[in-house]
Design a protein that fits this description.
The complex is a heterodimer. By secondary structure, chain A is mainly α. Chain A is built from 21 helices and 2 strands. In chain A, α3 (about 75-95) runs antiparallel to α4 (about 110-125), α4 (about 110-125) runs antiparallel to α5 (about 130-145) and α15 runs antiparallel to α17. The longest helix of chain A is centred in the N-terminal third of the chain and has 32 residues, at about 150-185. Chain A is globular and about 85 Å long. The two termini of chain A are about 30 Å apart. Chain B contains 3 helices and no strands. In chain B, α2 (about 25-45) packs antiparallel against α3. Chain B is elongated and about 65 Å long. The chains are: A mainly alpha, B mainly alpha.
Chain lengths: ~525, ~110
């Protein structure tokens, strides 16, 4: 058994606990421990990703209670990619956070580690109740991080976020209870096998259970009727936290992809493809609503938060076709959108600190202090997010459009994704011109009427703040340069995801696959 | 017993949903708590209702009640309790910072 699989969970748990014990020690100690832990996890997940690309699906059996009885962690290509993205993003966000954000509260670093534990756990677990537990770990730390730093707007947005997610957790339990009552198992692979044999009289309840769970995942992923918490929660929280949360909505996307291909896939008998009629239209409407939010919001950080909604809509619209090509394209798009949105949140934070009168609102203010550096960073991130060549947004979107072109709804998907890109371009162009060009002179009369100078007492950002942002942005050209291997990897992930028998065989052995096939699945 | 149980659940859920839709934080938290109780009870009966049966396997018993939902409920109760404690603290802090106990922080308190 490969003990490395459980390290992305144990390491942040241990470090988080140590940081909590030393809560009154110096912040330098917290920073050192947090950075060491995040760097180590990034290395470990890189090794795991390498193993997953080249090897079979691996399983980690906790306490040696073999499935379907015990709790298992499963490392396939999809989960390996997700934990690697999370860890790398967390490391870069932490590098930015140690430049001051973490001093606003005592427990930032501990919460950050527990947040990593929850996200990595949700990606790795192979048990649906364990998924609930990791969701709660993730949410409880995210509640703390959303409120980090305090302030009335954060508290208000945080309260909505907390209460909505509490209702979501209750509904998750209802869905799990329905499915357990009918299937008698909580291991996802085992549920898939049992679902294939489920009698037709339970069809309605099983489908209801599946769709109840979708409601919860849609809340996590921020799909249309359930995304209203996101713009305020992401827009008003501190920048490194918002940047890290760029991956939190992807947890919802991942879980939708996992559960509705593995458990409710083609082989699921009476509840086969229960989500297929719903996901695509809902995702497309989310895309439209998010785009409207992008142009309508008067605050740069809220604009970016709405872009998170747009990217979730795009991803799930493409995944909603449930074809291998489309899933491969979505896998290529996912790291791009996560890293670029995160970079944009950090850039918006630096702009906000140098615009003392307007903050991140899109009203004219004095020029920003380091307009060349920040302007170039903004330009790079905007080009990547809007999907213009030569950066990764362009190649990823192109691949998605080609991936869905054989689907019946392709005209809708094409036009809405392209329209969403155009709207994003307009919004970012407007934001950039207001922030960098439409600046206010020092005073309207007298000698200095036309001199445009920044505010006197603004913070200036050294390389320590700029390097994490640059590293995030540098991922975009890398994704283009290594586009060939990346798309090969995307197809390899899609092959595993769209053929859940491999997953089931790795977890339960070939007998279970035979049982599944005997029920008429593929 | 099934009828009694489901009636109980229905009443608790409807009360919980009604309270959750109120405008002040205190009724909302009460509603969340009630909903949590109802969900825990629902999860408990996902192993079916049995009377007077052990959950522990013994060689001389032929029938058992399903022990797994009991373990699940225990986990759910602990998590739910922690969440309620957190949201109470958050609501107190919000009423301090926003100067109102309305969930949207409105001052006039018309709910």
């Amino acid at each position: 058994m490969n003990h490395l699989i459980v390290a992305p969970l144990l390491l942040p748990l241990l470090m988080g606990a140590i940081i909590v014990i030393g809560v009154n020690r110096s912040i330098t100690l917290h920073r050192t421990l947090g950075l060491i832990s995040s760097a180590l996890i990034t290395l470990i997940t890189a090794v795991l990703l390498y193993q997953a690309i080249n090897g079979p699906i691996q399983m980690y059996v906790l306490g040696d209670w073999n499935p379907p009885f015990g709790i298992i962690m499963v490392l396939d290509r999809l989960s390996a990619m997700m934990i690697f993205i999370t860890s790398l993003l967390a490391f870069l966000c932490l590098l930015y956070a140690i430049k001051g954000t973490d001093e606003q509260g005592k427990n930032f670093h501990a919460l950050f580690q527990f947040q990593l534990l929850g996200i990595n756990g949700a990606f790795l677990t192979g048990d649906i109740f364990n998924l609930f537990v990791f969701f709660e770990v993730m949410l409880l730390s995210s509640y703390g991080l959303v409120l980090h730093g305090g302030g009335a707007r954060r508290t208000k947005a945080g309260m909505h976020y907390v209460m909505l997610n509490l209702v979501g957790s209750s509904i998750f339990l209802v869905g799990v209870g329905v499915l357990y009552g009918l299937l008698g198992s909580l291991n996802m692979a085992d549920m898939a096998v049992r679902l294939a044999h489920a009698p037709a009289e339970n069809a309605a309840l099983l489908q209801a259970g599946g769709l109840i769970l979708f409601g919860v995942f849609a809340l996590k992923a921020a799909l249309l009727p359930l995304y209203f918490w996101l713009p305020n929660a992401y827009g008003f929280t501190s920048a490194p936290v918002a940047a890290l949360f760029a991956v939190m909505t992807k947890v919802g996307v991942y879980v939708i992809l996992r559960v509705y291909t593995l458990i409710f896939g083609d082989h699921a008998g009476v509840a086969a493809n229960v989500l297929a009629p719903w996901l695509l239209p809902i995702a497309l409407v989310t895309l439209v609503a998010g785009s409207i939010g992008v142009v309508a919001s008067r605050d740069l950080r809220r604009t970016i938060a709405y872009m998170v909604v747009v990217s979730v809509g795009t991803l799930l619209a493409v995944i909603g076709t449930f074809t291998a090509d489309a899933i491969a394209a979505a896998i290529v798009y996912l790291p791009h959108t996560t890293f670029m949105t995160a970079a944009m949140f950090l850039i918006a934070d630096m702009l906000r600190q140098q615009r003392l009168d307007s903050g991140s609102e899109l009203t004219p203010d004095r020029p920003v202090g380091q307009e060349r550096v920040l302007g170039l960073l903004f330009l790079g991130a905007a080009v990547a997010i809007a999907g213009l060549p030569p950066l990764s947004g362009f190649t990823a979107k192109l691949m998605m459009l080609m991936g869905v072109q054989s689907h019946a709804a392709a005209p809708w998907i094409w036009s809405l994704i392209l329209l969403g890109g155009l709207v994003g371009l307009i919004a970012l162009g407007r934001a950039g011109s207001v922030i960098f060009w439409k600046t206010v002179p020092l005073d309207d009369t007298g000698l200095e009427a036309f001199s445009k100078k920044p505010h006197a007492n603004i913070p200036r950002f050294g390389s320590a703040c700029l390097v994490p942002v640059l590293m995030l942005l540098a991922i975009s050209p890398l994704l283009v340069l290594f586009g060939g291997p990346l798309s090969d990897f995307g197809y390899a992930v899609a092959a595993q995801v769209s053929q859940p028998v491999h997953y089931i065989e790795a977890v339960l052995g070939s007998d279970a696959v035979a049982a599944l096939l005997s029920a008429g699945g593929r | 017993m099934e009828l009694l149980f489901s009636t109980c659940l229905g009443v608790m859920i409807s009360c919980g949903v009604y309270l959750m839709l109120r405008g002040r934080t205190f009724p909302v938290i009460l509603g969340l708590t009630l909903l949590g109780y109802a969900v825990n009870m629902f999860l408990f009966v996902s192993g079916r209702l049995q009377t007077n049966l052990p959950a522990v396997i013994a060689p001389d018993r032929l029938q058992y009640t399903d022990p797994l939902p009991q373990a699940l409920v225990l986990t759910a109760i602990v998590i739910g309790f922690a969440m309620v404690a957190f949201v109470v603290v958050l609501a107190l802090r919000a009423s301090g910072e926003l100067g109102s106990d309305h969930v949207d922080g409105r001052k006039e308190n018309k709910s």
